Amino acid sequence: MKKPVIFLSLLFLVIGGLLSLGLRSVHSPTDELSPVRSPQEELSTFQLEPDLTIQLVASEPMVQDPVAISFDAAGRLWVVEMRGYMATLDADGEQQPSGRVSVLEDTNGDGQMDRSHVFLDSLVMPRAMALVAGGILIAENGALWLAEDRNNDLRADSKLLIDKTYAAGGLPEHAPNGLWRGLDNWLYSAKGRVRYRLVNKRWQRDSTEMRGQWGMSHDDAGRLVYNYNWSQLHADLVPPNYLSRNKNHTPTTGIDHGLTLDRRIYPIRSNRAVNRGYIPGTLDKQGRLLEFTSACSPFVYRGTLLPEAYRGNVFVCENAGNLIKRNVVTQRGVLLTAHDPHPGREFMASTDERFRPVALASGPDGALYVADMYRGIVQHGAYMTPYLREQTLARKLEQPAHLGRIWRIVPKEKTQVTARKLADASATELVAALSSADGWQRDMAQRLLIERNDNRAGLALVELVRQGREPLGRMHALWTLDALPQTSASAGTRPSDRPALLFDALTDPDLLVSNAALRLLEPLARQDKTIREKLGDYLLATWSNAPIERVLQIALSASVLDAPRKLPLLAGIVTRYDTLALIRDATLSSLPGQEFDLLQRLWASSDWQTRQPAKEIFLEMLATAVIRNRNPAQLNALLATLQTTPANGNWREKAVLTGLSIGGNPAKPVRLATAPPILTKSASPNTTLATVATLFTWPGHERPGRDRLDQASRVAKPLLAADDQKQFAMGRQLYLSTCSGCHGTDGAGMPRFGPPLAGSDWVTGDEKRLALILLHGMEGPVKVGKRVYDVPEILPVMPAHSTMDDGSLTAILTYIRNEWGNQAGPMGKRTVGMTRVTAQGRLTPWTAKELEALPATAASAPQSPNR
Length: 867
Description:
Elements: H1 3-21, H2 39-43, E1 46-48, E2 52-59, E3 66-71, E4 77-81, E5 99-105, E6 115-123, E7 128-132, E8 135-140, E9 143-148, E10 158-163, E11 177-181, E12 187-190, E13 194-199, E14 202-207, E15 217-218, E16 224-228, E17 231-235, E18 257-258, E19 295-300, E20 314-318, E21 323-332, E22 335-339, E23 348-350, E24 357-362, E25 368-372, H3 386-394, E26 405-411, H4 427-433, H5 439-452, H6 457-467, H7 471-483, H8 498-506, H9 511-527, H10 529-542, H11 548-557, H12 563-576, H13 581-589, H14 595-604, H15 613-629, H16 632-643, H17 650-663, E27 670-671, H18 687-693, E28 696-697, H19 706-716, H20 722-738, H21 740-743, H22 761-764, H23 767-776, E29 778-779, E30 782-784, E31 787-789, E32 797-798, H24 806-816, H25 831-838, E33 846-847, H26 848-853
Parallel strand pairs: 27-28, 29-33
Antiparallel strand pairs: 1-23, 2-26, 3-4, 4-5, 5-6, 7-8, 8-9, 9-10, 11-12, 13-14, 15-16, 16-17, 17-18, 19-20, 20-21, 21-22, 21-23, 24-25, 25-26, 29-32, 30-31
Helix pairs in contact: 4-5, 4-6, 5-7, 6-7, 7-9, 8-9, 9-10, 9-11, 10-12, 11-13, 12-14, 14-15, 15-17, 17-18, 18-19, 20-24, 23-25
GO molecular function: electron transfer activity; heme binding; metal ion binding
Domain Cytochrome c: 726-820
Pfam families: Cytochrome_CBB3, DUF7133
């Protein structure tokens, strides 16, 4: 184990031990003991939605320690069994090859599995799998492997290494997992930055954005859904890898979007054996968890067996709370939100503390399946506190190990269900299944058509795209065709016919279909100028009448166009939708190296002469990207533009100079061909100009003098070291996207929205107090300086930002504490994380009076990122 992990583990043990000493008299470790129950006894402990019922599918010894489940086309259930996970309180034997992948069959159709095949054993901590042709991809022992069954006996005959670094070096709770097949035929992982795809019988590895912690799924539109143990539901608002294309711009929206701020959970038993149970506010008076601490495996139900009200809902496992949360998702424009339809009562909960839901799935019957590890210990030993250890031993939760159950949830009036299996379906039947109302059927049909590579499916797929009645079927047909080799001689499936098909699909009345066609046209447009020009003309002619969901995809896809069509298209989009942070990020993602060209166009536009906060933000973002691009000719031209700025355009000059100061690096100044007049003026009181001057050299001015560098550093960003400067720059971009709408780009506050941050003791004062405001929000009147702000001068409540990760919040706080004359120095790197832990259980915004009553705190110790 690495030294930092040892240090942190010891620190958590010391802190937990000290804090737990004073709690023993309050929470007796022997109350509400949790005896081991048989599957039939556990069944009686469940509370479920009244119109549903739960059935046992499999249990030990057939299945042990299940952590991932998936159905194959024949209706067999594949189970990853992590039998080495916390087999003892000290994690003994964790690196022993005790794990396995089992295949379970129901041979008599009674709904219970009665036959088990060990497909692959002797695995070290297996954590994820994906069903592929001939076998599975399996993540174990830190690597990714391909295990194949070549004689169809449900036993792996070979094991080939695909990626030795897939999950190397990560602890069990914090290493890549999931291997979720996306609509675009790539396999994605939670807690990982790579994706995989089979092309021409070879596995491709590609980078992608980091997402989530444990488990992943997608909705009907293909949007990836994931979460973190402390934040139950996040999703991508845009397809993968779009917003990360421009190295000159760091997006702040679109990926990792928090769908709900509601962290509350409603267990039906005490949950004292949780890692942070010693922290006041973690448990209520009955010892029940108040909020998520171990959220995992979010699953979008896309089936048809459960009542219609459940379709599209996202279910989230909370194994420490012995429950499953239900979320209803709503789309408004390009944004998604979610809410609990029945606050106070969970979708599923148990009075058995050993009920540990860790994975969800759907199958060919449309039911919702639950993998239950059924054990006492779910916290990994590296992060276990003395409090949890004491609770575990006193309540005899450490044993037995190697149990496990699989459950199925079905409607009460339809307890006997028939699975529609696709293993023996013909090509024609599989194409028809792409239009099924059931998501599992569509996904499986798409996968099988691609794997079989049957030319006979080509014409049927083309016909489905052109004439299919169901939009989802037309969309799946497009993605299936995209993955099939374009070598068929059949009319409509040849490579030369593909552009015509996609251009026709661009006019599809359904946005999912037309946006898929637009995405699939991109690689063709890159390769063919005629296609590129035709696509650009079409987008220019249609974007202004398109709904915002379509406009977003147009802004993303515009990257493939040439400048004569790209620039007017993006200028029009960002002018109309400049108030949407996601549109700003999408626009910049399509402009690598061309940010200055768009800035010039907007500078000359009559729509960009009057000051508006959103336009100010975007000009600043453009300027930041321009200097990160480090093109001397562009920067010379930009600085010359500023020199000729008329007096009434000072807001634009300020925005550009601010952007340059944020994005530049005085340690690596850009060398200009000529001296920029705006930076060679006589001594100027403009401190932003002084900062910008440190970012360049030119003939006769090889490097700013040390005094000038130090002066600019003191004035512009005081007390910040090199790493803090990076935090400051990132915090500025995040602030512009999330905070400036209420507090202004200059921190002076906005009438009817938010009070000023510049010169505010709330900002420059106690770090923990400031972190609490961002984590939970603030309501009521607040005094800044000598003035009290209250409704209607400001909004009644500042919302929480708890769905943002610790690093993002730290960056924002570092920025606002050191801008607009504030000189509070960097935010402690561990303050937000530890504050999130110690304030767990706070479910309402703070008032100024409450915050003022809190004692001042020093920089906080590091947090455990776990349960």
